[in-house]
User: Fold these one by one.
Assistant:
Number 1:
Amino acid sequence: MKTLAREHDKAEILERLRALSPSSPRRWGRMSVHQMVCHLSDCYRMVTDGRVVTRTATPLPQPVMRWLALYGPFRWPAGVVTSPELDQSVAGTRPAEFALDVADLAALVEAMTTHQRSRLEGQMHPAFGPMSESAWLRWGYLHADHHLRQFGV
């Protein structure tokens, strides 16, 4: 299973981030590529910078949702509604300059996997509840992969 805990998997995500351009077309959803970059950054800030995010209601108990999302044998579906603080058209970080926002996202991936890694244990996810370090790093890979596939990289 891929995870940001593995250097090879992290390098894959960072390489795919570098392949994005401001004109990368979306395959689904309503976010622009630039909004997606800021969305991922805001999501990583939940655990690296303590960004406060409203808890999300789920159809199943949080531990079940967490297990299905992180270890279930399927890709994440398109169209899942996010918390307002992570939605760039509501209260998320507004896109500024594409290259700088991509660089900021890459720095957050690095922070999450290096000097901020010790802060991951027990941090709350808005839909999945408290997560372990390994769960956060698995989620970090899957979330980036989901949105990078959204833009064909």
Number 2:
Amino acid sequence: MPIRARKPEDLDGCVAVLRRVYETTGYPSGWPQDPARWLTPAGQVGAWVAEDDGRLAGHIGLVQGVRTQCLLEVTGREAGGLGGMGVSPKLRRYVGP
């Protein structure tokens, strides 16, 4: 599955993937008022998309300076170097050890 830097014209597709993730998993906990802006927050240092047969399949963004206690508790790491990811529910699969 190719991964490349997100382009501005990818944003509508990223919002569509986020919508499918939200409807399947409930993440994010509330649907953002402006989902495109939610996917392009201040402090974002990079964003990438994954493609499956030329269609957008997922999105990941890296945001610097986020201080969220829940991320620290879940990962045991400061959130400064963590990213968020959304993958189309149809394309998820577990690849275990």
Number 3:
Amino acid sequence: MKSLARERDLAEIQRRLKSVTTESQRRWGRMSVHQMICHLSDSFLAVTGRRPASMASGPLQRTVIKWTALYVPLRWPPDLPTRPEVDQARGGTAPVDFAADLAQLETLLTLITSDSRCFDGQQHPIFGPMSRSAWLRWAYLHMDHHLRQFGS
């Protein structure tokens, strides 16, 4: 299973992220490529406690849905709902400068993969508490989902 804990999987995501441009076209959903970059940054900020995100978790989300999303070898489907605080059409960060927003995402990617304490005490808004390995699995899958959304 791919995870940002593995060097080669991290390198793959970094390579794919570098291939995204302002001209990248979405294959599904409503976000622009620039909104997607901001969405990924907002998500990392939220799960590391640097940005508030409302909880939408219950026993089903913390068990069956979490296990299915993280460990069943299927790609996440298009058009999954997200929390309003990381939804660029609602409460997420508005895109400003593509290069600067991309650089922020790359910095956050480095943070979550190099600082073993960045997730300490944090809960995923839907999946609840997670181990560091589960966080890095989720981060890989989340980035993979949105990079595929833009053909990368």
Number 4:
Amino acid sequence: MSKPIELTKDFKEFNFLSYYKINRSKQYIYSCLACHYVQTGKTYDEVAAMLHYSRNSIIKWISKYQEEGINALLVTKAGRGRVSMLPKGMSIEFNEAIILLQENRQGGRIIGKDVVKFVEEQYGVKYSVSGIYKVLSRMVLSWVSGRSIDTKANPEAQETFKKLQ
């Protein structure tokens, strides 16, 4: 059997149920409910089973409140997810470089493989084609282009052909 949870006087008196009804975010609801259940005498394991969170999460929430108060309990840290492999602050430069790459292309349009090669040469970072398309989408660089110009096309011959018609 677990040893009883030691709670501070402030923790025992705080009304978690009314507080989470004011702040209706999922994070607030579960952490406040966990605190409420611990307040009512439930063990960490019982609360974890009821809320479908790990026992360690419940323990962290309780200790966070007891150490720093309600504001510390409800703070969600920024920076979740995978960190981009491209250097930070390069988005404007990267956007301009990709647009310039398309404009300098002699016929045709750039595709994912071209961008992967460019990023590897310029920044020394390896991406897959699907990964580079996600980066382009995040940087709002996905576009639909019209029919591309063949690299073997002869513009003068085409103009002559148009005039003959």
